[in-house]
Amino acid sequence: MAEEKNQYSIGKVSTLCNVPVRTLRYYDKIGLLVPEYRKDESNYRYYTQDQILTLFIIRKLKLLGIPLKEIHEINSSRDSFKKRKE
Fold first, then answer.
1. Cβ contacts of residue 75 below 8 Å, gap of 6+?
2. How far apart are CA 8 and CA 1, in angstroms?
3. Cβ distance 32 to 71 under 8 Å?
4. pTM
5. In 1-86, which residue ranges form alpha helices assigned H by DSSP?
6. Which helix (H) or strand (E) holds 7?
C-alpha cells in the first residue's frame, strides 16, 4: 500500500498531526498543502514525510497568529529554495 512507500493517507496524517481531515482538504483546495499523490480511481490523498513536516510548520505559524495567506507565501518561498538547492 502507499504507506509502504513513505506515503500516508489523509486519515493517518490527520491522526499523526492532530489536524482534522476537513482542514487538510481545505489546505489542498487553497494550494497550501497539496498531497504529493492522489489515486485516480478513488481520489484518495497521500502525503509524504516532508509534507508532514510542512504541516507541523504550518500549525506552528498559525499558533503565532500568522494568516494562511502569509503562510502560503512562506511555504512557496521554502519550496523555491529547496528546488534551487537540488
1. 32, 33, 54, 57, 58
2. 10
3. yes
4. 0.81
5. 10-17, 21-30, 49-63, 68-85
6. strand 7-9
Higher pLDDT, 34 or 85: 34
Q: Which residues pair with 48 in a beta bridge?
A: 7
Distance spanning both ends of the chain, measured CA to CA: 28
Residue with C-alpha cell 529547496?
A: 82
The per-residue pLDDT for 6 is 86
Question: How far is CA 70 from each of CA 8, 40, 62, 84, 85, rounded to the nearest angstrom?
Answer: 26, 31, 10, 21, 23
Cell 489523509 found at = 10
The yes-or-no verdict on residue 81 having pLDDT over 80 is no
